[in-house]
Design brief:
heterodimer, A: 177 residues, mainly alpha, 2 domains, 10 helices, B: 326 residues, alpha+beta, 6-stranded antiparallel β-barrel
Amino acid sequence: MMTILQVISIAAIPALIVFILTYAALKGVKIYEVFVEGAKEGFQVAVRIIPYLVAMLVAIGIFRAGGAMEMLGMLVGPITNLIGMDPEVLPLAILRPLSGSGALGVMSELVTTHGPDSLIGRMASVMMGSTETTFYVMAVYFGSVSVYRTRHAIPGGLIADVVGLIAAVFVTNLFFG
Amino acid sequence: MLNYIWLGLIIVGIIAALSTDFSDILSDKYRNNESIDIILSFDEGIEPSAGKMMSGTVTIDLAYLHAFYGIDIKDDRVVTYPVHMTFSSSEKAIARIPVQEDFPTLWKEMAVAQPTDDGKLAGSIKIISKRDETSYQAEFVSDPLRFIGLQRVTNDGIVGYASTAVTIAIGLIGIMALWLGVMKVAEEAGLVQAIATGLRPIMTRLFPDVPANHPAMGAMILNISANMLGLANAATPLGLKAMEELNKLNKKLGTATDAMVTFLVINTSSVQLIPATVIAIRVSAGSANPTEVIVPMILATATATIAGITAVKLLQRLPVYKKQLD
């Protein structure tokens, strides 16, 4: 299982690139010229998202550095205990939609301290994969096309996050509890 | 909504920092300006005098130190740490104690929080009396610490994350250029449209406002596939390409369309078949079966995606959000 997955994730990108380029060349596309033309946009896109990313990350940075996570944890702790979420994984649940690298840090810490095959270690692993860093993805994706009126993106994204995290707790308890 | 969440994150963060700071002040957590009894030792034949820079050692009774800070830790060791001093008179000196492995936790914390933040605990030493040829009875006072929480907000939160944001964006340039180039080639060859044709029934239902043969469809499918395979490096540029295509259909620039929001939510709930990073962490932590979490994870993320799509499809009908498109 592991080796198949590894092969797929290692081979996918080179295979995809080779396939696209060969196919296009056979179709008579001037691949080098066209590639360079498309790649030119890379810089502009990256630069365009900077203001959005700064706005979002600084707010998240203040929230985390000020220790608000711990306070929020105390507030929602009683509720999350009811649904079978271990208090140890609560910080991960709060952090998951806010910061990808932060959540990854908390997750690896939980997996290392409690052991990857403990219930906490498994719950942390499942949670990590259950959803994405909503605020970061939003800043980058909408920022790249200069969209700032986000309409129902935040409520929708947060509903998906909450449902995903609850589902992670539920499924973990069902499989390993 | 975003405005309030944004402001909320900032205000809650600052309030949390302030309340920690005030409780530190009230409990006098760092015992500012209070002196700790220590024994100061030098090599033989060295006499402290004004203007001299010297190195020596401080010896502290940990049980006494913990009692001094009001911390409930049982530790009876007597520890000795090196110290560097600059004497302003024969009794008084500015002192720096380099952080050691076995430092008391509070001292480690204080050393980091001090404005000097150079891996040393800063303070001052005052010699009280001579004990024998090489050692003195002395007092150590750490440099006063106030508003650590707010300092952390400024340094880590504001300054730190602002530059992190730029680092992330700049780091994207190369990989972004690569995939945008490959995408352009695929587009010219008619591949992107071909992919879209296969999944047309699902895609037209998810994105009714996007014409079935629009390039956005192909880009979105590629992005979702890359996400499923856990290829984050490829997924982001492909997703941004899709956003750009969706934006071409946008009649009101600056405002997200229904299709954009739906696509975003699919991305933020990320159906992932190969969670490479999580598995790698489990392997390195010595899991007996690192991949056992894949099936539960797929169930959880699929639930999240379905919930997200349902939510945005319902929310987009609300007058509040509909109105913003006009």
